[in-house]
Amino acid sequence: MTKASNIHHSAALIGFGRLTTDAITGLTDVVEAVHRQIAFSSRDAASPWAQSSAGLTALVYGSIRGVTGLVDRGLAELAPLASPVDERPLSPAHEAVIATLNGVVGDYLARTLNPLAISMSLRRHGQPLEIERHALQATIPQVTGRVLLLAHGLCLNDLQWKRKGHDYGEALGGEFGYTPVYLHYNSGLHVSENGRLLADLLETLFHQWPVPVEELAIIGHSMGGLVSRSAYYYGEEAVHDWPRHLERLLFLGTPHHGAPLERIGNWVNTTLEVSPYSVPFARLAKIRSAGITDMRYGNLLDDDWEGRDRFARAGDLRVPQPLPPGVQSYAIAATTKRHAKGSPRLDLFGDGLVPVNSALGRHRTPGMSLQFSESRQWIGYGMNHWDLLSHPAIYEQIRRWFGLQSSKLVAGESRANRN
Questions:
Q1: Neighbours of 325 (CB within 10 A)
Q2: Domain spans in the chain, listed from the N-terminal domain onward
């Protein structure tokens, strides 16, 4: 069974300490590389004086790294002395900081086994759920057969679904009888890695749910929508049971075809590598996580990134993936523009992060376009990417769609007959 887990204060102390020392070491590498590049051109690097100076430079920078390692070990030894209060769950503010760190360098945190790396789980009210039938029944007394999964976006966490006093999961649960569960995951990992993890997690949840599952619905904000689509693909590939119970999939500002800000970051990274003096600084541009670089074009699968340098300039090499067949799929986009004048193709930044066309799955190549029906697309004007989480007009649109579909389910319309 999937065990519940949370990051506590003592683990955070070690994690932040290790991340700090890693950052010092990394910046030391960059400074040392700049020093070497400025001091010694390629033609005189082999001279006796250059080699002697290089030895001295290595000694100085090596000493910095040695002191940094002592700090890391000291923090690890101090952690067991932390008071019992440090074993309590972190505050929402601390959780938000850790979620941001996971979004930016989460793949690195996972690779180095840093305690700050978030392990995927399902949570309610910020507490992880133990995915076992009796434990779920005890934790969710009013459990229903209508399961609603909410998947957060890049650098966010499950607590941030509650914004300005509003929570879509709670609201839809109260109106339509859903039991909401909230995904908590490391958004710095590749989308496909999270997709595979989510597929397995949903399969376990499906078989351990305390009552028969009548319907599964998913709402994904930003990257959460990509992770949900990826999970469906890997769930089908593994012949899981849960994809057959997925009734509806709603995307809020999901970059189905990428976000231009990541493409700009990729361009900056490539530009830095043009000059030998700026090459060391290109390492800083390469700090961004695999999850962020997946947002360049909206990668979903391992095949979209495996065997490639994710920082190299390249075109869109994704394998086209259609929307799940037979599933009611809805797309909501937002734009900071106040009106509908002008072509959406010229609205490059849309809600500030995701263009309208990307959020609605539109693509200039027909085979790449996602076929959302016109009645299942909606654009919110005068809104930004974060307004998608709480704007009353957006909830009203979700409510209309879910209410319409709920009436069809009550009438007994089968999924096979819906398009």
A1: 10
A2: 9-90, 121-258+318-417
Confidence class of residue 61 from pLDDT cuts 50, 70 and 90? very low
Nearest CA to 360 out of 331, 337, 328 is that of 331
Q: Scanning the structure block, which residue is given the tokens 């495996």?
A: 306
Phi, psi (5° rounding) for residue 197? -60, -40
Q: What is the pLDDT of residues 209-243, one digit of tens each?
A: 999 999 999 999 999 999 999 999 999 999 999 99
d(CA 404, CA 68): 60
- Helix, strand and coil in the chain, % to nearest 5: 50, 10, 35
pLDDT value at residue 313 = 73
Cα 52 to Cα 36: distance, rounded to the nearest angstrom = 12
Which residues lie below 8 Å from residue 199, measured CB to CB, with a gap of 6+? 231, 232, 234, 235, 238, 240, 242
Q: Which residue has the tokens 């001279």?
A: 47
CB atoms near residue 308 (< 10 Å)? 10
Each residue's pLDDT tens digit, 357-384: 999 999 989 889 999 999 999 999 999 9
C-alpha 259/C-alpha 372 separation (Å) is: 19
Rounded CA separation 121/114 (Å): 17
Domain 121-258+318-417, second-level architecture: 3-Layer(aba) Sandwich (3.40)
220's enclosing H/E stretch is strand 215-221
- CB neighbours of residue 123 within 10 Å: 17
Query: For residue 265, how many other CB atoms are within 10 A of its CB?
Result: 18
The one-letter amino acid at 339: H
Contacts of 110 (CB under 8 A, 6+ apart): 117, 186, 188, 189
Question: How many residues in the chain?
Answer: 419
Task: Determine if the pTM surpasses 0.85.
Answer: no
- 387-417 burial, b at 16+ Cβ within 10 Å, e below that, comes to bbbbbeebbebbeebbeebbeebeeeeebee
Strand order, beta sheet including 146-151: 127-128, 121-124, 179-184, 146-151, 215-221, 246-252, 328-335, 377-381
- Give Cα 44 to chain centroid, integer Å: 47
| Backbone angles phi and psi of 258, in degrees to 5 | 95, 175
Query: Beta strand pairing status for 179-184 and 377-381?
Result: unpaired
Q: Which helix (H) or strand (E) holds 198?
A: helix 191-208
Closest CA to 28 of 20, 38, 40: 20
